# Entry
Amino acid sequence: MTVSFPHTGTLPETTPRLHFRLLRDSDAEFILALLNEPGWLKYIGDKNVHTRKEALAYIHTGPLAMFKQQGFCLSLVECARDGVPLGLCGLLKRDSLEWPDIGFAFAERYHGRGIAFEAASATLKHAKEALGLTNVSAITAVNNTASMGMLFKLGFTLQGRIELPGVDEPSNLFLKIL
# Structure
């Protein structure tokens, strides 16, 4: 089944603590650090981003290319008060999944503050209200209990395991009806 998505090109609204924006070249150092944090490497995997140049390539061929193609992407989530980058949150469209899936990753120093839940909630609201989506998927490593717990808190249901291209081990597949 082919599902088409609107190409509105919008991002979630600012929340009381968070601001969403497209990544830009000046975010390369933050992306380089985030993509090499132990949690990212363990649960998401090594994206082979080990230099500033590779971080720039990731920004342009990943999130910015997806935004141009789909009208949504992983956005930089920053502190609304001072613009400090906190992490990434948004929607991705993978050929192997019927629906867009939500992705989130925050610098480990910001874990445990409710930031990921706030960002993911805003992203789901945006998916429904601005993009007109009726379903959103999510995938996690089978041992990523923190992300699974947050997905359950957000109202996702576990659908089972899925084999994803380029991923050595099965992943958990979740679905949320919006």
Observations:
- DSSP finds six helices and seven strands in the chain.
- Residues 115-129 form the longest helix (15 residues).
- Confidence is low (pLDDT under 50) at residues 1-6.
- The first strand starts at residue 18 and ends at 21.
